[in-house]
Amino acid sequence: MNLVQPIGIVGMCLGLFLSITTIFLMRWVKLPLTKDIIVGTLRTFLQLILVGFFLEYIFAVNQWYWVIGFLIVMILVAAHTAEQRLKKYKRLSFLPDISFSILLGSAFTLFWATQVVIHVHPWYHPQYVIPLAGMVIGNSMNSAALALDRFYGEVSQLKPEIETLLALGATGQQAAESPLKNALMAAMIPNINALMVVGIVSLPGMMTGQILAGESPLNAVLYQIIVMLMITCASAITSVLSVKMSVKKIFNSAEQLILEH
Amino acid sequence: MRQPILSIQNISLVKNNHPILNHITATIDPKEIVVISGPSGSGKSSFLRLLNRLEDPSEGTIDFHNQPIEAYSPVELRRQIALVSQTPIMFPGSVLQNFQLVEQINHRPHQSAVFYEEKLQWVGLPASCLNQEAQSLSLGEKQRFSLARALLNNPEILLLDEPTSALDPEASTHLLNAIEALNRDHGLTIVMVTHQKAHGAHIGQQFWNLKAGQLTTHIAVPSAEGGAS
For chain A, how many structural domains are there in total? Predict the structure, then answer.
């Protein structure tokens, strides 16, 4: 079995040279990003080392409730992060809708991949469930934020069009069809593009990690295919659900457009 | 005595703590033409939006056929009380496709091209417009098309917001005559907003003047049938 070449303290310090290069480059082009790069680098170290210890613990105790608890925290953090990107629509609360959409999208794809495709045993095996969930939840978060930002942006911009349709006898659902479709396109296109170029332009992180860890490239590829399909499906479920729920929010019971921010 | 088709009782509209309309009370009889004039920002357009419930008043009630407008489904009410806004909105596609969109949202089958051509001619547009890109029409043509499009739902009341604002005098006269014909031949009740008093002066039976959200002048001209009071 191949053992991964370990990275020691010296190696990690040398790795920091890449951050220093980034800082110099940004200063050279006069972008005030030094503080952000330093904070970002420190956070990357701290967060990943903490999660490393935490995952070591979860893998060691190997209990379903630890795994589920970790997934719930991931979903809530992802929903909160997506909501932060929609701050400009301050009158609306997105957290429950986004949490529910990510939960449904990731639960379905995770169940299908781990139980039907890979036959993970026991069903909560943290070594499989946590990394797969991480990738799916992270991408669902991006899709939800993209879809909702585009949806509310279009609704604000297309208010006269929407009200013309309402005045012509359309329901809110009918009047919001065009912003809804455009929002879903915006959310799905990055995922579909990723499906198109994977392996040619990009070698995804999970596959790279597995190959580095000594796994056969072919097996790594098979896992990556499943991951790509999971991400696309979870993003679709999450964005459709979150936008559909938003359509109900922008109209009141009198089918009046009530978006104000 | 004729029952009013619309009865407006003491309505006010406040938006962001800013009063838009102030205690307006009036009635409109069936088949009547009401011309509302007033300077920009006097609340004329907001008033029309209340009549077909794109917005609700902050205070007061509006009855349609002696029933509060809230008693009707909003979609059904807007089919009965059609609003043609001042800025005409065209959807992507041809004029024909814009007509068909209205049929589609109201779950009706598409009509023949001849049917739509007649509607266009009726508002003074050539039948050849039918296959033209709707966005490529001039502003005046768009205004006229909007009126034709609103008629597809066979409304009882037509709310027109500055329908002649982008038209030259000749086209304006044509459209006003068409509006009068709608009232005369099809029995439509018409509420028309204009910032120029002269527009619609010869066709109206009630003349209202709005100033800073208040109904300052209310003149009723008795019609031949004795409709207005």
Answer: 2
